[in-house]
Amino acid sequence: MSQSEVDVQSLFAEEKVGWSGYVEWEKYPEKKAIATQILNTKKFTPIPEFQFVPLPNTNPILIGHRWKEYHEALGLKNIVDFSWKTVLEEKPDLLHVLDFPYNGETTREQLLLGKLTDNKYHFVRNHGGIPDIQEDVFELEIGGLVNKTVKLSLKDLKDPAKFPQAEVTVTLQCSGTRRIEQINEYPGDGDELINAPWGEGAIGTAVYRGVPLKKVLKLACGGVTPECKHLEFIGVDTYFKKNNVFNYAVSVPWRKVRNNEEVLLAWEMNGKPLPKSHGAPLRVVVTGYIGARSCKWVYRINALAEPSMGPVQAQEYLYFTSQIGKQNTKYSNGFSIQQMPVSSAIISPVNRQVIVHEGKITLKGWAYSGGGNWVERVEVSPDGGSVWYAVDQDDMTEKHYHAWRLWKIDVPVDAEGWLEFCVRTWDSSNNTEPTFVRSAWNWDLHVTSSCHRIKVYSVNKTRAATMKRLKELEARGEGIEPLSHPLEYQLEDTEEYLKACRAHPREPVC
Ligand code: MTE
């Protein structure tokens, strides 16, 4: 190890025993300044281009060279290594969209397994490395505009005699879910921390157990002061923005926290201890908001008069108009995305699938609405959005205030050839989805809530000519797929051809 490597390791050392992967930045402005100086002297690999060129057909799909190099420059390579080791242990079967910071997507099959997403299959979105914090030494600090600053151990928090516990079924959705549809329409901001090219699987549902933050503020801190308008959550992980270094920080308004079980401090996910990749030992779960506010590995909460100045809150997760782009974007000219709108996705069949059927096609998917709205109705159209069929209530999972509903429908289909199916959902406030991706395209490629569309090739066996062709193919040991491969035999014999053409000549009569 060179002298300079030794230096950075001692400069940015972990300061708490049992808190591996945690470097405190927010308390030490001078330490931040030194880190910036070091980063300013280095050249880093540019982020990969994947919007103007096709995505690589690899798993991991994208490699986070730049973010790894940032960590290495500050002597934090152990964080990079531990993160990937944890991913392989906890999330071996996800689609690894980005290896570091880890972004992993739930596959289609995993999404449809049930109302609750198995912890092993729940998507992960990280801005930094996964830390390794021992539960028995962990403590949460609460300060700022509270009547009493406190430090609470996990044992305190978990003690039902001290704080009432709650279990809530919550769908967490990254505001980048289905981003790939926006990219395919028009490329947008690449962002230093890659705006992951998610498909339909950056969403998942779990039962979280913990204590409502409102209760902790009241019982441990004696309440917040009248000036408090926002609660800031600080996570252990190290985050980078334009060569500056931070701990992950976001905030939600106090008015949200006041709604008892809508903001939880959680340690359990689906009846099991929170996995490391999901924020162990303690995370925030904010119902109905974008996933970004549900801070993982939370170790400090600050009651503030204004929203957090952390870059994830102040400079990212912004919603711009389509007139805003690289030429004029600022942090202040987009609004902050907090509550998630209604959205849905068709998970089966998949885009470009060939479907041989007997007059109906089965579709399955998810539907979700945030902001305390729940899913009331899901409708599917087999013709791009003119005719809609409603999903039967018996074919939807039960309603929750803060969770998705999985659905299934058999849609009558007579037509053959390429058809465009789409789905739209209505929520409890009668909101529904924009019609086309273009209707809500935005520079940061967030919140793709427009009707999800897929093109499928319909082969209807109830039609005599189709059935005949399928039988011919079967007799030859062939199938209809691959669709683009030509048939290797004559489509009809000469006698049949002449009969048809003489009955209906191709030339008009004089
Ligand atoms: N908390 C910390 N500390 N660091 C992060 O990178 N990512 C956020 C949020 N909480 C993040 C975080 C984002 S953008 C999302 S979508 C959710 O965590 C994802 O939660 P999950 O990884 O448990 O599915």
Task: Quickly describe the structure.
With 510 residues, this protein is an alpha+beta fold.
Task: Describe how the helices and strands are arranged.
Layout: H1 3-11, E1 19-20, H2 29-40, H3 65-73, H4 77-90, E2 95-98, E3 103-105, H5 108-111, E4 124-125, E5 132-133, E6 139-144, E7 150-153, H6 154-158, E8 166-173, H7 179-185, E9 203-212, H8 213-221, E10 230-241, E11 244-253, H9 254-257, E12 263-269, E13 272-273, E14 283-286, E15 298-304, H10 311-314, E16 318-319, E17 335-336, E18 343-348, E19 354-357, E20 360-368, E21 375-381, E22 389-390, E23 405-412, E24 417-427, E25 452-460, H11 464-475, H12 494-503
Parallel strand pairs: 6-15, 19-25
Antiparallel strand pairs: 1-5, 2-3, 3-4, 6-7, 8-9, 9-12, 10-11, 10-15, 12-13, 12-14, 16-17, 18-20, 20-23, 21-22, 21-24, 24-25
Helix pairs in contact: 3-4
The protein binds ligand MTE.
Residues 122-128, 172, 174, 235, 237, 248, 278, 291-292, 294-297 line the site of ligand MTE.
